[in-house]
């Protein structure tokens, strides 16, 4: 039986000078792995300012199964969980090491709740590596991936996110990867650079909550545009983990980058405790001057 994590957002975490940031990234199409656009430029800039982590704990929309589990292998396989994309994407490798030590730490941290140790069934999927390719392109930081439990509601995921907060004080960068609005049936190929009105409204409502009262994210399930924006929960639920971390820290999230593509996908991303650049100069063009993602199918995947 799953532990009820829903009540774990009430105690504020202890402060630490060494606390790591946490982030939710709207990952969009797997092709963002290979592109430089205004969204991936923002990811790259975040990667340049984050202190080098001891390890990364990733929560990806693409490991959506009926159990909470963490990858616990020394060398997690790189999973190309999609079809219909160019060969260059299937050839892409992100050979980051795993961390069985961190996996065991996560499992211990949530007790008496249960998180299983996965040693052979999953690995690093594109929800994780398409983002880390920009944040940590050398693939030299250990990565552990946490599944999104398909049988639990949003409050469970918010609470579980809150329970992971101590990891931030132990050198772990928690990164959540999904999309706020993700409706493939409503993709508008004629409008690659904008959001439909309903998608924009819901994205704005989420922004209001995440930047002011993130612990109340679950209330958005009653928003009139929730059904169109979140027809299936797997891409939205990773945001609940950041909401829980924010609630535990008693601190709102900050927008990293915002916007939409193809009408029914939003790429808005958030950061908790965003680091201040330490004298590093951004490379390339300013994000605002870069293009939107190419007009390729946003997802053709196994979820």
UniProtKB/TrEMBL annotation:
GO molecular function terms noted in the UniProt entry: ferrous iron binding; oxidoreductase activity, acting on single donors with incorporation of molecular oxygen, incorporation of two atoms of oxygen; zinc ion binding
SUPFAM superfamilies xrefs: LigB-like
Domain Extradiol ring-cleavage dioxygenase class III enzyme subunit B: 49-265
Ion transport keyword on record: no
Pfam family membership, one: LigB
Disordered: region residues: 272-303
Database matches in InterPro entries: Extradiol_dOase_DODA, Xdiol_dOase_suB
Top-rank taxon, per record: Bacteria
Key words of the record: Dioxygenase, Metal-binding, Oxidoreductase, Zinc
Cofactor dependence: Zn(2+)
Family: Belongs to the DODA-type extradiol aromatic ring-opening dioxygenase family.
Protein name: Candidate Aromatic ring-opening dioxygenase (Catalytic LigB subunit)
Organism the protein comes from: Ramlibacter tataouinensis (strain ATCC BAA-407 / DSM 14655 / LMG 21543 / TTB310)
Lineage: Bacteria, Pseudomonadati, Pseudomonadota, Betaproteobacteria, Burkholderiales
Gene behind the chain: ligB
């Amino acid at each position: 039986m799953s532990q009820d994590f829903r009540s774990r957002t009430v105690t504020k975490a202890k402060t630490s000078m060494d606390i790591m940031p946490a982030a939710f990234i709207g990952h969009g199409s797997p092709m963002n792995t290979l592109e430089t656009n205004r969204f991936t430029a923002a990811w790259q800039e975040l990667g340049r300012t984050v202190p080098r982590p001891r390890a990364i704990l990733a929560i990806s929309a693409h490991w959506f199964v009926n159990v909470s589990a963490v990858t616990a292998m020394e060398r997690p396989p790189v999973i190309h969980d999609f079809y219909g994309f160019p060969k260059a994407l299937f050839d892409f490798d992100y050979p980051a090491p795993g961390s069985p030590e961190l996996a065991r730490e996560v499992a211990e941290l949530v007790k008496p709740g249960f998180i299983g140790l996965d040693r052979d069934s999953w690995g690093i999927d594109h929800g994780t590596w398409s983002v880390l390719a920009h944040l940590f392109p050398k693939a030299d930081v250990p990565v552990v991936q946490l599944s999104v439990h398909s049988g639990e509601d949003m409050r469970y995921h918010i609470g579980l996110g809150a329970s992971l907060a101590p990891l931030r004080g132990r050198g772990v960068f928690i990164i959540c990867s999904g999309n706020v609005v993700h409706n493939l049936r409503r993709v508008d190929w004629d409008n690659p650079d904008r959001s439909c009105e309903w998608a924009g409204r819901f994205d704005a409502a989420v922004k209001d909550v995440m930047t002011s009262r993130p612990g109340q994210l679950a209330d958005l399930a009653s928003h009139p545009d929730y059904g169109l924006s979140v027809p299936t929960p797997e891409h939205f639920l990773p945001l609940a983990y950041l909401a829980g971390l924010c609630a535990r820290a008693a601190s709102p999230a900050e927008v990293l980058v915002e916007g939409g593509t193809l009408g029914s996908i939003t790429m808005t991303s958030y950061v908790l405790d965003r680091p201040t650049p330490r004298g590093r100069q951004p490379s390339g063009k300013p994000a605002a001057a870069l293009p939107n993602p190419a007009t390729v199918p946003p997802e053709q995947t196994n979820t």
